[in-house]
Amino acid sequence: MRHGRRLQKKIRAVDSEWIRFKPGGVPLEKEISQAVIRRIPRYYRCLGELIDEGMERISSKDLSRRMSVTASQIRQDLNNFGGFGQQGYGYNVKYLYEEIGKILGLGETHNIIIVGAGNLGQALANYVEFEKFGFKIIALFDINPELKGQTVRGIGIHMLEELDAFCKKERVNIAALTMPKTKADTIANHLADLGIPAIWNFANVDLKLADKQVVVENVHLSDSLMQLSYNLVKHKQS
Amino acid sequence: MRHGRRLQKKIRAVDSEWIRFKPGGVPLEKEISQAVIRRIPRYYRCLGELIDEGMERISSKDLSRRMSVTASQIRQDLNNFGGFGQQGYGYNVKYLYEEIGKILGLGETHNIIIVGAGNLGQALANYVEFEKFGFKIIALFDINPELKGQTVRGIGIHMLEELDAFCKKERVNIAALTMPKTKADTIANHLADLGIPAIWNFANVDLKLADKQVVVENVHLSDSLMQLSYNLVKHKQS
Question: What is the pTM of this model?
C-alpha cells in the first residue's frame, strides 16, 4: 500500500523522467528521458575501462570523479533501472557493466546494413569497435555501379536494387543512412516498410516517418564541434 | 547586497553545475557542467529550425515540447548564461539563437585541419553544414603519397611532413584526428606542441595530453548506436 502511494506521486527528478499512471495508481510504464539514456553508454564505456584496468569494485565517489558527474546523479540515473549499489559498499564493476549492457540491449547481436557506401559509409564499415558491443555490419548498399561487388573489411557492397531481397533473406535490425540528404527520406520510408525497426541517421535531415513503426537516432556531428568550440572559447578566456 | 547573498549559497542544480567561491563570498567562476554544454547545441539547432519556419517568439512550453526537455530544465540551462526569457512573454527566437551562438563561440570562424585523409577524413571534409556554423576546413593531411595534391570539395590533401610549416603560416583552431588509433597519441601531442588549441578526436582512444594546453572533444559513435539499441529493445517490449 505504501509502495502504491509512493508511486502515485508524480515523481519529477532531474532530466524530466517521470512515472505515468492509469487512474487508480497503477504505474503504466516508467518513462526514462533521453538525457538519461545519453549518459548510460558513457557509464558503460567507463566501466569497461575499469574492467580493463583490473578494478573489481568502485565507490560512487570515485566513479563520480571518473565520469565528471555527481555521485547523486549516478545514483538517480541507475535508480531508473532499479539501482545497483549497496550503501557503503560501492559498485561491483563487472556486475554493473553487465547489467548496464543488458539495459542497453547489448546482450544480443544487432545486424546493421549501411545504405550509402561513400566515404562515410565505408568509414563506418571500418569501425571494428562496433562489433565489441554486438553491432555487426553485414552489408553496404549503393547506387554507384563501380562499387558493385567491392568489399570493405570483407563486407560486400551491394546494389540498392538488391535491398528488398536481402532484407527478406537476412535479419536486419538497424539501417545506417549515409547517403545524400536529398534521398534520405524516400529510402528511410522504404526501409521502414521493409520492416527494419531502427534507423541510424547520418543524413543531417529530419526524417519524416510519422506513421511508421521505426526508431530513429540522428547523429549530429556539428553538435560535438559546437561543444568543442564552447570549451575552446572558454579556455581562451580563463 | 541581496544579489550577493544569493550567490553565496552553493547552488546545486541538475547536472551538477555549481558556483565556486573564495572565502568572503566572491564568486570565483561559474562552472557549467559538460552535460549542460551538450544540450546547448541542440537548443541552437532547434532555434535555427524555428527561424527557418518564420517563428519570431516561442513560449517556454512550446520550446519544451519541441526539445523533449522540461520547461524548467530549459530555464535552468539558460540561467547558467544569464537567462533570456521574460516571464509570460516567452523567448524571442532570433535573439536567443544569436545569444546561444555567441555562448558557443560561433561568432568567429574556426579553421579546421583534418589529420588522416582516409574515408572518415574525406567524409568530414564533405560536410558542407559545418561551414554554416563558422567551422571552415582548410586542409587535410595524410602519409599516403597517392593522396598528395588531391582535393576533397576543393580542399587540398597535404603530406604530413608539411604540417609544421602549414601551421606556422595558417591560423589553425581545431585539428580533427581521423587516423588509425595507434598513431593518434603521437600526432595529438605534436599538434599540441605546434600550438593548436583544440582536438576533435575520432580515433577512439583516450589521448594522453595531461601536461598540454589543449581542449579535446572525443567523438564516440558507438554511444549513439547504444542509445539506438536501448530504444530499439524498449520499443520491442512496449
Answer: 0.80
